[in-house]
């Protein structure tokens, strides 16, 4: 059907006089001319666009002219779903590439993240490749080459413990530093670890509470039944309890850390092999920090 717009020229589409008269007669006999007539005429009553739109109701159903309630609901649902998807991705599924990506709101929530340990630097810190979501090692791969891992890992400082200092900047290493480093490498490298991000230290590292999942447990039980790494290290005698200002000891607390350390000392494990240590890691750092020619070293917390 061709609809003649009433406010445009109708030279070529003018109807014969008798057809126009028939349409006018039908409209006059109908109780509701706008709904019952089949032809849109050109009377002066429809000479403006608003009136013409009302006249279209007699030809096109109202549902085709105006959005229905179902259309509005579908539109709102689509917008809400998209917004929820962006929120979930930003909060839980976006990969945190480096410590610089750890924002204050992440630390305020003490967010848990999981990832693969790619390297161990000293005996109380490591590099974590964040692996959010599912499909890692099956559909998505963790890089293994150093060039591919550059600026792709979070530098994690293990909360609540202090390891013997290795040799750096020409300084001699503390006794048992190599043994402690070797223990941590064997325990972590290439392993999945859960970390609760607590805060950043003055060197840009993220102080975190790491948990190591136990073997043969499904992934959804990994964090609940995981082993606290810091307590493992204290039990093995590879570290001491960190007690300086700002120390974090997780949900177990400082007293639990000191209790595990005391048991390792009694059993003469690791650094307690000879019954005690001549100098704690904190004392070692203070001694070299007081030397004017000594370069600055990250404080291990």
Report on this model:
- This protein has 301 residues and is of the alpha+beta class.
- The chain has 11 helices and 8 strands.
- The chain has helices at 17-29, 33-36, 49-55, 62-65, 69-93, 104-108, 146-149, 177-188, 229-236, 254-267, 281-289, and strands at 112-120, 125-130, 154-158, 161-162, 192-200, 206-212, 227-228, 240-241.
- The strands form 2 sheets. It has a 5-stranded mixed β-barrel.
- The radius of gyration is 37 Å and the shape is elongated.
- The chain starts with 16 loop residues before the first helix and ends in a 12-residue tail after the last helix.
- 24% of the residues are buried.
Task: Summarize the model shown.
With 301 residues, the chain is α+β, with helices and mostly antiparallel strands. Helices cover 35% and strands 14% of the residues.
